[in-house]
Amino acid sequence: MDQQTNIANLETLPNQLKSILEAILFVSSEPITIEQFCQVLEGVSPKRIKDELAKLAEEYQESGRSFQLTEIANGYQINTHPEYHDWVSKFHTKQVRVKLTPAALEALAIVAYKQPVTRADVEEVRGVNSDSVLNSLLEKGLIGISRRTPDSGRSFQFETTDQFLDQFGLKDLSDLPSAEEIQQFLLTN
Length: 189
What we know:
Elements: H1 3-8, H2 14-27, H3 34-40, H4 46-63, E1 67-72, E2 75-80, H5 85-91, H6 102-114, E3 117-118, H7 119-126, H8 131-139, E4 143-148, E5 156-160, H9 162-167, H10 179-188
Antiparallel strand pairs: 1-2, 3-5, 4-5
Helix pairs in contact: 2-4, 6-8
């Protein structure tokens, strides 16, 4: 069977589709969106892909595997269950993909919680010039320019990116800790 015939039969081969999704997930180091799956699996509906991903996630969970399929940063990714973190850390030296200064973390938190924000908004909260720190966050891909303000100044507005979600292991912005959770954490530490 050639590749073209194989691709044409995806709708009639549900196990094949699930295996193809799994293979793509397995080799990817980044979350994969439904749109990206659709580009590769022409003719397969987004609903069908989501259904097959749900079945795959359920199979992993039922079989007690050390990994899971999670929805993260507007996509899907296979990752290790948290209880195996210590073992994996012993095998690999944990590497931080993006190193941030305290100033960058502060500015990033402002953008994450108040987005979309302008440079002036960030500077008002921080009380210092934030040009270089915002440029650094833009270069690292953690924030992006969402639009310009409608006023006469037409300032850029910043918001977090999918890379931000991926870096911090968040499915979406609703996963950010609330002000109450942060306050409780600060009181207990």
